[in-house]
Design brief:
heterodimer, A: about 120 residues, B: alpha/beta, Rossmann fold, Ubiquitin-like (UB roll), 5-stranded mixed β-sheet
Chain lengths: ~120, ~600
């Protein structure tokens, strides 16, 4: 370790690895992983979310939950911001998942077209 | 790929002894079988503190804590929680809300944690102690970097002085002042020693810090080295702490690899190296001069002070000796400033204190609270009080050098000076709770038995005197005591305090003096009435069966291990033969009608 700067750099990269234990992420993304969700393809969606977050160093954690109740709209992805405001995205596939991440978590813009409100149900 | 979930398994000594290593292995195995091993990481951490509920497993980011997990539960947790996102409710750590009677799962609202403030234990149960990067992620080695790049040694000492940090090993001596003494010595060779020879019965604060966050001690030792002008440190740790020793070895190796220990740290020209010295578990080696002798390879015996170690310590060179927990506070003081630390706790005792709760208490474990918290808050609100609805009798603090505090002291604010004023002491932080079933004479005898074993034998008052004290206490417990015995006990105790060479002997009679003061009645009952009110001292007990209450069922006779009870089922009441009776109490617990009485 040559300088305080070197240490700070190492800290930044190390910090991302344990952020989820400290509840400091800006967004919490929840994927419905009940039988209905898994059958509709929640697993590839979850993988896509993780890949995209990792690639872009976005400040979010991903967790899974059971059946959200609207089985016909699975896979469902819920995004909670720091204030606990929830946005529900439905009929998500890996491509949509990537778009959602870039827009919602990356830019802070809700991607209206994939939300539950936009499906008209 | 980024992991989505971290499963933290407690790998402290407590949980390890209830199979947490196997739990860790099972998680690895089951996750691999389910092909989840890339996205879910299993991490071994230090102590979560709530040892009573161990083994503890935490799942993040969900912040779910599982208690009493067994290796068999692992498959279910993975299947339900990790795979399907449903928590396994039967295992989740929770409280019951007093008002609504609903379950509380939020860790910050669980009473055991709600009143705690973690400085020394800030990383325990959060990071993997065997991964230096996780320590760095939690601002690790930032304090050392700051000190070496921005501060002079005197500024470091001033900061520690201003924080009001006092030695957590028990004495409560101001840490900054100690450093100043050593810094003022003109010597090209000085030493920093970390005293990890934690020996009080029931105390495990230092072990948990070293197991859960070894780097914080290494970092603080390097800071101390810079402050006093030392380039070498020793950690004196007992060999009975194998997990802590192993983690320290790993930590020192990793710190050296990253250049955070060794030569020319942060390009400042300052070099610091740390070596481990394993003690053989002699209590007296926690005394600093005996500790120095032991490091030098000699028999661990104290020598008179002065000269103090700060002037003439290990290898005859100026040396500072600080306790593990003291060091664990240093980095946070440097990073957050003396004023921040000073604002926590009471005026004369700043910061927090870690206590190991043990004995007759519901939540056995490790807690860290601000100084000034009352005993009642620690024992009842955090500790959950005495189990099985037993009545609280006393709390023993300060180990074999301390004393007992009773019901009337429960609202005392804990700090160094308050506890001494009440005839006990802070000590290193062991807190042993006693309930109505504990005999105070027996408790005093327990500590004296310990001291007799641990006295190094160098000075006569301690070597012979404590042995005599133990004999007197044994006389009292076995019914041979008289009022003169009590007088002799008190006189001899005071003599030993006056005449002993080191702290061990000077404080050894404290448990006797303190219990005699607080529980005079109990001592009197033993010597005058030949009765043990708590029903502990076997020689003073007798068991009788009340013939009127006896239903002649024969249960007691069948339960008696030595055949001391005779009678005929359904015909004559049962009788205990006092000559054969070993006073084990089996008849009392077998009798469903309360016919057996203990006197």
């Amino acid at each position: 370790m040559k300088s305080l700067e070197d240490l700070k750099k190492l800290r930044e990269s190390a910090k991302r690895k344990i952020d989820m234990r400290q509840g400091e992420a800006d967004y919490r993304i929840v994927v419905g992983m009940a039988t209905c969700g898994i059958a509709a393809g929640a697993r590839p969606v979850l993988n896509a979310l993780l890949e995209e977050l990792d690639k872009n160093h976005y400040p979010a954690v991903v967790t899974q939950t059971g059946c959200i109740g609207m089985c016909t709209l699975e896979p469902i992805v819920e995004v909670f911001d720091k204030q606990g405001e929830k946005t529900t995205y439905v009929l998500v596939n890996p491509e949509k998942a990537r778009e959602i991440i870039h827009s919602h978590v990356g830019k802070g813009e809700v991607l209206q077209k994939y939300t539950i409100a936009a499906t008209g149900k | 790929m980024l992991e989505r979930t971290h499963i933290l398994v407690c790998a402290g000594t407590g949980c390890t002894s209830s199979q947490s290593a196997l739990i860790y292995d099972n998680f690895q195995k089951v996750l691999k079988e389910r092909k989840l091993d890339k996205e879910v990481k299993v991490v071994k951490t230090g102590c979560f503190g709530l040892c009573q509920k161990g083994p503890i497993v935490a799942v993040h980011p969900d912040e779910v804590f599982y208690a009493h997990v067994t290796p068999e539960d692992v498959a279910e947790i993975v299947e339900e929680h990790i795979y399907k996102g449903r928590t396994v409710d039967r295992l989740v750590l929770h409280d019951i809300d007093d008002d609504t009677k609903e379950k509380v799962f939020d860790i910050n609202r669980i009473r055991f944690y709600a009143k705690q403030q973690r400085i020394a234990l800030r990383n325990c149960g959060i990071i993997n102690p065997e991964d230096i990067e996780e320590y760095i992620a939690r601002d690790g080695y930032q304090a050392l970097g700051k000190v070496l790049s921005e501060m002079t040694p005197q500024q470091v000492i001033d900061e520690v002085k201003a924080s009001g940090l006092r030695g957590r090993g028990g004495g409560g001596f101001p840490t900054g002042v100690k450093w100043q003494f050593a810094a003022a010595q003109d010597s090209s060779e000085k030493y920093v020693i970390c005293n990890a020879d934690e020996g009080d019965p029931g105390a495990f604060m230092d072990r948990s810090v070293l197991e859960g966050d070894p780097h914080t001690v290494l970092e603080a030792m390097a800071i101390a080295g810079y402050a006093i002008g030392a380039s070498h440190g020793y950690i004196y740790i007992r060999a009975e702490y194998p997990i802590a020793v192993e983690r320290l070895k790993v930590a020192i190796k990793q710190a050296k690899e990253l250049g955070l220990l060794g030569d020319n740290l942060f390009g400042s020209g300052f070099s610091f190296d740390i070596e481990l010295r394993l003690g053989a578990g002699a209590f007296v080696c926690g005394e600093e001069t005996a500790l120095i002798m032991s490091i030098e390879g000699k028999r661990g015996m104290p020598v008179p002070k002065p000269p103090f170690p700060a002037v003439k310590g290990v290898w005859g060179k100026p040396t500072i000796i600080n306790n593990v927990e003291t060091f664990a506070n240093v980095c946070q003081i440097i990073l957050n400033g003396a004023a921040w630390f000073k604002a926590i706790g009471t005026e004369k005792s700043s910061g927090t204190k870690v206590f190991a709760l043990g004995g007759k208490i519901t939540n056995t474990g490790l807690v860290e609270v601000p100084m000034g918290t009352t005993l009642r808050e620690v024992i009842y609100e955090i500790g959950g009080g005495c189990p099985n609805n037993k009545r609280f009798k006393a709390v023993q603090t300060g180990g074999p050098s301390g004393g007992c505090l009773t019901e009337e002291h429960l609202d005392t604010e804990i700090d160094f000076d308050n506890l001494i004023a009440l005839g006990s002491m802070m000590g290193s932080g062991g807190m042993i709770v006693l309930d109505e079933d504990n005999c105070m004479v027996d408790v005093a005898r327990f500590y004296m038995d310990f001291i007799v074993d641990e006295s190094c034998g160098k000075c006569t008052p301690c070597r012979v005197g404590t042995k005599r004290l133990l004999e007197l206490l044994t006389d009292i417990c076995e019914g041979r005591g008289t009022l003169e015995t009590l007088e002799e006990l008190e006189t001899l105790s005071n003599d030993i305090k006056e005449a002993s060479l080191c702290g061990l002997g000077q404080t050894a009679p404290n448990p006797i003096l303190s219990t005699m003061r607080q529980f005079k009645d109990e001592y009197l009952a033993h010597v005058v009435e030949k009765r043990c009110p708590a029903g502990v001292c076997k020689a003073l007990l007798s068991y009788k069966i009340d013939p009127d209450k006896c239903k002649k069922c024969s249960m007691c006779a069948r339960g008696c291990p030595v055949g001391a009870i005779s009678g005929e089922p359904g015909k004559t009441a049962y009788v205990i033969d006092p000559k054969k009776c070993i006073k084990c109490g089996a008849c009392i617990s077998t009798c469903k009608f309360g016919a057996v009485a203990r006197g």
